[in-house]
Design a protein that fits this description.
The protein is α/β, with parallel strands linked by helices. 54% of the residues lie in helices and 11% in strands. The N and C termini lie far apart (42 Å). The mean pLDDT is 96. The structure holds zinc ion. Zinc ion binds next to helix 7 and helix 12.
C-alpha cells in the first residue's frame, strides 16, 4: 500500500467562530479584505455582522446559484478598488467558489474568461472561507465550480491555488438555512463522503474521514430539515459536511457527481438534489463491485447491509421532498441522459466507469 494525504487549510470550528476573521487576518498579516457573500446573508444582516467585526472594506453579492465568470471580473475590480490583499467568503458553495476564482483573477491581472478557458495561474490572493450551509465542503477543497452563462458552460476548475488559507466553520451560520436547501446541501455532503469511499483514489485516511462524516450526517440530516433551530443537528451536519470535504478533497468525486452535471444542465435540478437522484442507485451498483468493503462501511454505520443503507437514502429523499423518478424531473430520454452521464470525466474516478448501456438499464429502474 502506498498513498499520500495533504490538507493545507487551517480549520477553526465551533459556535461563534465567525467573529475570528480579524484574528485570522492578523495572524497571516492580511491588511484589507473584501467579503463575497450570498445575497440572502446580506438581507438577513449576517454579511454586515461579519464584515463589520473583521473591518472588511466592501461586500460583493452580485451573483446567483451558478456564479458566472463576469461576476468574478466585477468582484476582482472591487478587490483592486479597495486595495484588498485577501478575499473573505460567506455563504454556500457559490460564494466560496466565486471568492476562490476572484482571488485568482485579482492576483493574475488576467480576465476571468482567459483563466476559465485557458491555463489557471498558480497563485491567487488568500481566501478565508466561512460556509453558511452544511454541504459543498468547498472551504477545504481545491475546486471552484464556475459558469459562463453566455456560452452555456459550467465546470469544476481544480487547482492547488483554490485551497483557502483558512476555513472558519460556525454552525450558527446555518441556523437560518431553509428546509429545502438544508436537504439538498446535506444530501450533497452525504454524496461527497460516499463517493470518497468509492473513488479509485481512496486511501485509509479518506476512508476513515468518509465513515465519520456519514455517521454524523445520517443521524442528523432529517432532524435539521424538520427543525432548523436544532443546534445539535446543525452542528453535526456542519461538522459532517466539513469532514466529508476533507475526505473527498484528495479523492475527488465519482459516478454520482458525474451524473449530477447532466441532470442539472438538462433538467435544471439543484446540485444536491441531482446528486441525491442517483445516490441510492449507485450505493447498490458500487456495493456489487466490492461487496466486502462496502458492507463493512454499511455495518460500521449501523445498517444491516448495503441494501439497508440504500433504502435509508431513498427514505431520506422522500422525507425531505426530493424528486426521485424520471417522470418527476420530466425525463423521457433515458438513453440520452445515460450517454451524457457516462461521458462525464468524473465517471472515470469511480471504482468502475459505468457505460452508457449499464446506466440506461439502471435509470430504467427510476421510472
Ligand atoms: Zn457536490
Amino acid at each position: 500500500m502506498k498513498f499520500g494525504y495533504s490538507q493545507p487549510v487551517e480549520i477553526r470550528f465551533g459556535a461563534g467562530t465567525r467573529t475570528e476573521v480579524a484574528e485570522v487576518m492578523r495572524k497571516h498579516g492580511f491588511k484589507r479584505g473584501i467579503l463575497v457573500a450570498d445575497a440572502s446573508l446580506v438581507a438577513n444582516g449576517r454579511a454586515d455582522e461579519v464584515a463589520k467585526a473583521a473591518g472588511l472594506a466592501a461586500v460583493f453579492d452580485g451573483f446567483g446559484a451558478n456564479p458566472d465568470i463576469t461576476a468574478a471580473d466585477k468582484a476582482a475590480a472591487l478587490v483592486k478598488d479597495c486595495g484588498a490583499d485577501c478575499v473573505v467568503a460567506l455563504g454556500g458553495g457559490s460564494a466560496m467558489d466565486l471568492a476562490k476564482f476572484t482571488a485568482l483573477v485579482a492576483k493574475s491581472g488576467k480576465c476571468a474568461e482567459e483563466l476559465f478557458y485557458g491555463q489557471l495561474t498558480a497563485e491567487g490572493l488568500p481566501v478565508i472561507a466561512l460556509p453558511a450551509t452544511a454541504g459543498t465542503g468547498s472551504e477545504v477543497t481545491g475546486v471552484s465550480v464556475m459558469s459562463d452563462a453566455a456560452r452555456g458552460a459550467k465546470k469544476p476548475l481544480v487547482s492547488q491555488a483554490f485551497f483557502a488559507k483558512a476555513a472558519i466553520v460556525d454552525p450558527e451560520l446555518t441556523l437560518s438555512v431553509p428546509p429545502f436547501v438544508t436537504a439538498t446541501s446535506g444530501l450533497d455532503a452525504i454524496s461527497h463522503a460516499l463517493e470518497a469511499y468509492w473513488c479509485r483514489a481512496h486511501n485509509p485516511i479518506s476512508d476513515a474521514l468518509a465513515e465519520k462524516a456519514l455517521k454524523l450526517m445520517f443521524g442528523s440530516l432529517e432532524r435539521a430539515y424538520r427543525d432548523g433551530g436544532d443546534v445539535a443537528a446543525r452542528t453535526d451536519m456542519s461538522l459532517g459536511a466539513l469532514v466529508a470535504g476533507l475526505a473527498f478533497a484528495p479523492t475527488r468525486t465519482a459516478a454520482v457527481h458525474a451524473c449530477s452535471y447532466p441532470l442539472s444542465e438538462i433538467y435544471h435540478m439543484p446540485h444536491g438534489e441531482a446528486c441525491a437522484f442517483t445516490l441510492d442507485m449507485f450505493v447498490r451498483m458500487n456495493a456489487a463491485l466490492d461487496p466486502e468493503r462496502t458492507e463493512a462501511l454499511a455495518r460500521a454505520l449501523g445498517f444491516a447491509d448495503c441494501d439497508a443503507m440504500a433504502d435509508e437514502i431513498a427514505r431520506l429523499k422522500r422525507a425531505t421532498g426530493m424528486r426521485h423518478t424520471l417522470k418527476e424531473i420530466g425525463c423521457d430520454d433515458v438513453e440520452g441522459l445515460a450517454a451524457a452521464c457516462a461521458a462525464h470525466p468524473l465517471m472515470q474516478n469511480n471504482k468502475k466507469a459505468f457505460s452508457a448501456e449499464e446506466l440506461a438499464v439502471a435509470f430504467g429502474g427510476l421510472k
